[in-house]
């Protein structure tokens, strides 16, 4: 077993610097690396480029980094729930590259799996495909999209073992598995860290080879963005 | 004239036995409430669930179980979870039978705009561009006109496009319309709405052939 554990979030973020590009897992506030985000706020690293499907809300998730103006550029698919984000974007303090959600996933996966680029039909004929190479296959048009390049990927899993193997829960899985191994260093934070052998190899979603550092996170808030319930009839 | 629930009710009739269906945010989400219960249908939410169920009962909300609108949901027996690449693999690979989404504008050739108003509103496209670029069966649920009373069924979209020549059907508060190569073909009128009313509210080319029946909801 190759051990991937680090003692805490501080050790996990060793090497993080101003001007770096980060991938952050999560959809909305579900499955976001809460501990890594808190540590990035504490370190106060600046001029960051963040690749993440969403930008959090004003006072949680990536919104915390936006409040402190640590982010120069966001690459996301949907940013609708964050007033400070919208303000910074419309005033051009923040550079924003909006890309289709499936393209975001594919560009992460391409980076993880060694493809320099992929063709997708998403965005053809829209401003997303402007200045990009397009090509016809079997009568349909596709856009060439490049794999991402990033310094760190910060992901959150439900359970992990000391070898870096990960299991995700529910729809908190989303982009997290695709970002593992897609950056130079992948930092996984988990709700429960166990000994090797405790997780069933049949149930592993991400093998430890894609993870460089793993630690058990603390104080998860797991905030719900839109609490919707039904009445019992 | 229909309200939003009425639009959802009419669209629910388009959902057939054995369909995997992706529902967008807004009116499309309501469609799930009106699908006949004697047919087998599974709802996909692109953040990573197939077999999405209703909202949870109070106290059972789970931050790790949400839909693409970030609402808390439940998973039905037979449901599955997956990552975003597999989710859009289902969509891009045309394994999802029907996509229902909202729009700001639709053009008579099937172009759709629903993600950006330059300088005013920029929320992003989310999964909409992937959905409309790949799905073969795309129904738009929207009001026929905007808040200022201007038609949303146009010759050409004025807003940045989400997808090109992709919409197959439109259900509005006034009508059911099929998008054909010759323009908007009027199929049904909403209760109490005349063909004249629909013509007046439609800027794009409207094809009216023979008697247009009133919708049955």
> Average pLDDT across residues of chain B?
96
Secondary-structure-derived class of chain A: alpha/beta
Q: What best-fitting shape of chain A do the alpha-carbon axes yield?
A: globular
Globally, the shape of chain B reads globular
**If you compute it from the alpha carbons, what radius of gyration of chain A comes out, rounded to the nearest whole angstrom?**
18 Å
Distance between the termini of chain B: 12 Å
**Spans of at least 5 consecutive residues with low confidence of chain A:** none
Largest sheet of chain A: 8 strands, mixed
| Fraction of residues in β-strands of chain A | 25-35%
Q: Hey, which two chains have the biggest interface?
A: A-B, 60 and 51 residues
Order of the strands making up the biggest sheet of chain B = 4-3-2-1-5-10-12-13-14-15
Please, what is the oligomeric state?
heterodimer
Topology, number of strands of chain A? 11
